[in-house]
Q: What sequence folds into this?
């Protein structure tokens, strides 16, 4: 089987992640998968596998889960320590017809308890470390059974004890029924559970299949994104079907990343925007860890032009590019844009891209006040295509309130230029009176003050825009340099500096802006 044949099959029948490793092995059984850590569920497997071995491990784990009592249509929540075995276990659940519910290991026990209750008596697949975290959650009341991938606890079924269980035939879920459930970032409270079907997952591969076609050689793809995220499904699927060697990374620290990149020399790197910001310092590493990279890609959030420029200049590849995709869990990839070495530093960070080729999402910007959307009067950004998630699990009314026929409201505001570029200015919920775009201010100031590692403009207690900053090694900010950098933004309040470690973040490292704003409000109340 060729990768293109497998891809066409997915477009027709949907993406079933339980079948994907087997399909990829049929395309090329020797394609290597490397890890920067050991698998929790199979520590003896080592850090270098072939796709054929990977597929066999998935089949083995599917048999163990079946022996543990998991059956088709059953929802299985995976909440465990961050590890590449998360995706392997998700594929195993899918292989026996279960519905995968991915929960980030960054979620706290209270949030996990709420989501377990919403999912309604699922099986919980976890490990000893996370069971300790959930010690005060009434799992006996909220779950059907508890299975551990590593570590043993009273009342839980250890997968290790089910090794050698008889293999079972795969069960294929209906193309338009729930297959994988992920959650939103939770920047505004308890995350929403986003339901993906085989059809919606397969359709989302379309624009990215074309992007990977830019790579003519079978070079290594480095993936450093949360294993629980819907993006992981697409990233793994595309790389394996294209027969690219895969480097699956858990570690995000610059030192560890440099070591892996020097060793594996990836040509394609996918990572979170905040991780890429953290890795900027590696641009000056004499080992040139980014020297082999042809394509940098990020799909989670807008990224600052200065970061893209530094990374591209650290590549030795001719025609190196940074491809940014704007989207969200509910809609997948919506628009995209390529940035190049000679122009990335001059890019307008608010221009997130153009509609992608035929078969991808459609975009529109609609008025919020009856007047035509424009740069000075941004409208609501909406997306339409068959890749939109089916629903929010347990919150159908909430989902319906966000959907108008085929169009999905992203919650972002912006406008389109006469050339068709979509400019995303802010989340509607984060808009501040008197500020055109908080994100634009952040782009400009970060490009001027290289000592800043993060800048977030949030609404203060009196509706004033408050810049919250973090610096390299948490060194004190030079206020004279700050004032010179923000002369174009007189509406800004004085900056508030906090240690980088104190920034409240989501599982995908987005800053929780509302949490920061509440912090200032609470401080004001305490002073009153």
A:
């Amino acid at each position: 089987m060729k990768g293109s044949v497998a891809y066409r099959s997915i477009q027709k029948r949907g993406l079933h992640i339980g079948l994907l490793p087997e399909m990829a092995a049929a395309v090329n059984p020797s394609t290597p998968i490397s890890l920067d850590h050991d698998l929790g569920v199979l520590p003896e497997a080592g850090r270098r596998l072939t796709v054929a071995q990977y597929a066999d491990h998935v089949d083995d784990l599917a048999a163990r889960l079946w022996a543990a009592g998991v059956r088709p249509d059953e929802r299985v929540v995976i909440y465990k320590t961050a590890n590449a075995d998360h995706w392997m276990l998700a594929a195993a659940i899918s292989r026996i017809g279960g519905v995968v519910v991915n929960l980030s290991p960054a979620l706290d026990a209270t949030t996990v308890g709420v989501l377990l209750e919403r999912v309604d008596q699922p099986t919980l697949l976890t490990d000893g470390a996370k069971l300790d975290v959930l010690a005060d959650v009434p799992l006996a009341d909220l779950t059907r059974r508890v299975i551990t991938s590593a570590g043993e606890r009273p009342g839980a079924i250890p997968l290790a004890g089910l090794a050698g269980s008889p293999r079972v035939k795969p069960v294929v879920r209906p193309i338009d029924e729930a297959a994988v459930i992920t959650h939103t970032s939770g920047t505004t409270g308890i995350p929403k559970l986003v339901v993906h079907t085989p059809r919606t997952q397969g359709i989302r591969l379309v624009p990215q299949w074309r992007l990977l076609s830019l790579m003519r050689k079978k070079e290594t793809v480095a993936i450093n994104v949360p294993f629980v995220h819907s993006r992981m499904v697409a990233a793994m699927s595309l790389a394996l079907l294209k027969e690219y060697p895969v480097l699956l990374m858990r570690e995000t620290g610059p030192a560890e990343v440099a070591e892996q990149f020097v060793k594996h020399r990836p040509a394609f790197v996918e990572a979170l925007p905040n991780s890429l910001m953290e890795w900027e310092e590696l641009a000056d590493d004499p080992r040139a860890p980014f020297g082999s990279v042809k394509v940098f890609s990020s799909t989670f959030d807008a990224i600052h032009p200065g970061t893209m420029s530094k990374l591209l200049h650290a590549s030795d590849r001719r025609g190196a590019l940074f491809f940014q995709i704007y989207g969200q869990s509910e809609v997948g990839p919506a628009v995209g844009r390529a940035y190049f070495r000679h122009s990335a530093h001059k890019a307008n960070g608010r221009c997130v891209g153009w509609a992608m080729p035929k078969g991808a999402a459609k975009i529109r910007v609609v008025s919020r006040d009856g007047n035509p959307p424009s740069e000075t009067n941004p409208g609501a950004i909406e997306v339409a295509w068959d890749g939109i998630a089916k629903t929010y699990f347990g919150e159908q009314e909430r989902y319906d309130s966000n959907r108008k026929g085929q169009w999905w409201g992203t919650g972002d505001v912006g406008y389109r230029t006469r050339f068709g570029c979509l400019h995303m200015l802010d989340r509607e919920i984060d808009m501040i009176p008197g500020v055109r775009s908080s994100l634009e201010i952040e782009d400009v100031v970060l490009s001027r003050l290289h000592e800043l590692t993060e800048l977030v403009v949030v609404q203060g207690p009196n509706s004033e825009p408050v810049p919250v900053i973090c610096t390299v090694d948490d060194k004190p900010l030079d206020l004279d340099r700050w004032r010179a950098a923000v002369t174009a933004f007189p509406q800004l309040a004085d900056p508030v500096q906090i240690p980088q470690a104190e920034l409240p973040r989501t599982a995908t490292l987005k800053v929780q802006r509302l949490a920061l704003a509440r912090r200032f409000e609470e401080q004001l109340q305490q002073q009153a």
In short: The chain is about 30% helix and 20% strand. The mean pLDDT is 91. The longest helix spans residues 51-67. The radius of gyration is 23 Å.
